[in-house]
Amino acid sequence: MTKQFAVIGNPIEQSRSPELHHAFAAKTGVDLNYKKILAPLDGFESAVKAFFNQNGVGMNVTVPFKEQAFALCDQLTERAKIAKAVNTLWMQDGKLYGDNTDGQGLVAAIQALGWNLENSRILILGAGGATRGVIYPLVQAGVKQVVIANRTLARAEQLVEDLKDAVANAVLQAISLEQLTGEFDIVINATSASLTGDALQLPESLVFHHAYEMAYGKPSSFLDQAQARQVPATDGFGMLVGQAIEAFYIWNKVKPELKDFL
């Protein structure tokens, strides 16, 4: 019997999840159908319930519903609890389970590039939900220091306060964007600057050896600046594929190879 999956969001037209999951299925021999669901902003919960009531197996969640999905779950994975956001749902024994695969997707994408995470120093620009979701998996992968730089310092400080116990074996630090300086193995842009077109100026005193832009498919002043410095840089397509592979694995117990889809 064909297994039913979906991605839910608003807007949803731009989602590439169906093509990814159908490609994974073709590669692994899983019989599935994966569709897009546009949920009204006030109708997320009823759309999720309707999908699972109609024998849906698993669902991905995208903007702006990840926090609502978190609140809806009966059971949460450790990384979902820390992220306070859920992008992967499934039913098990009559309970709704939730996970957050974004951080693991980022880790897999960085490892596929051959960039070393072990004992590395990472700077993350932005202190929103995207940053919250990736810190725990990065530290699990061996990162020893994470500096969070945000326009509003208090927000970065709050994130450090929230996460420091969960990643006790790494150093977490908050700074404002005005304090950007020092040397880092990898800089990750988790701000919406690439999406809004706001240029984020990286000062000369900031030295970095790799640059990862979480957004994909859009012009990025962050990537432009990294390339001007001749630093290896990439957009977030690998992270998108990586988080999808992780969800596919949770649901189907088979893991496609990331490198086959980059």
UniProtKB/TrEMBL annotation:
Q: Look up the record and name the pathway of this protein.
A: Metabolic intermediate biosynthesis; chorismate biosynthesis; chorismate from D-erythrose 4-phosphate and phosphoenolpyruvate: step 4/7
Q: EC number(s) of the enzyme?
A: 1.1.1.25
Biological process terms from the Gene Ontology for this record are: amino acid biosynthetic process; aromatic amino acid family biosynthetic process; chorismate biosynthetic process; shikimate metabolic process
**One function term, GO molecular function aspect:** shikimate 3-dehydrogenase (NADP+) activity
- The residue ranges of the Quinate/shikimate 5-dehydrogenase/glutamyl-tRNA reductase domain are 114-194
Record: active site: 66
The reaction(s) annotated as catalysed by this protein in its Swiss-Prot or TrEMBL entry are: shikimate + NADP(+) = 3-dehydroshikimate + NADPH + H(+)
The Gene Ontology CC terms held by the record are: cytosol
Q: Which Gene3D superfamilies match?
A: Leucine Dehydrogenase, chain A, domain 1, NAD(P)-binding Rossmann-like Domain
| Lineage: superkingdom | Bacteria
The residues covered by the Shikimate dehydrogenase substrate binding N-terminal domain are 7-89
Annotated NADP(+) binding sites: 78, 126-130, 150-155, 236
Q: Which residues form a coiled coil?
A: 146-173
**Assembly state and interactors?**
Homodimer.
Function comment? Involved in the biosynthesis of the chorismate, which leads to the biosynthesis of aromatic amino acids. Catalyzes the reversible NADPH linked reduction of 3-dehydroshikimate (DHSA) to yield shikimate (SA).
Give the protein name, as stated in the record: Shikimate dehydrogenase (NADP(+))
Question: What is the organism of origin for this protein?
Answer: Acinetobacter haemolyticus CIP 64.3 = MTCC 9819
Q: Which gene encodes it?
A: aroE
